[in-house]
Amino acid sequence: MSAIDFLKKLPAAFDASAAAGTDAVVQFAISTPAHLVIKGGACEVVEGSAGNADVTLTMDDDDLVSLLKGDLNGMTAFMTGKLQLDGDMMLAQRMTSFFDAAKLA
Asked: Which pTM does this prediction carry?
């Protein structure tokens, strides 16, 4: 499964209560750029670049899928150079808790 196909599964796994009060745009700098818009208790994946991202995650497609599935620890990925962040690091750290990992397996 490509990273963009995996990202398109995120809205179905979104836990609005875990993301309560969060309005954010997360840019994924991957082979097919896409961004995640979290607003009003919902999330949407949009292909392309967002001009107003709160945080940008740059990483290989396979590593992104592993990170979002919970198979790759975000801090480990960051410390080993597999993940580069630009912007709100706290949002990036909280982001994986916004999704039900069982629905992404």
From this structure: 0.93
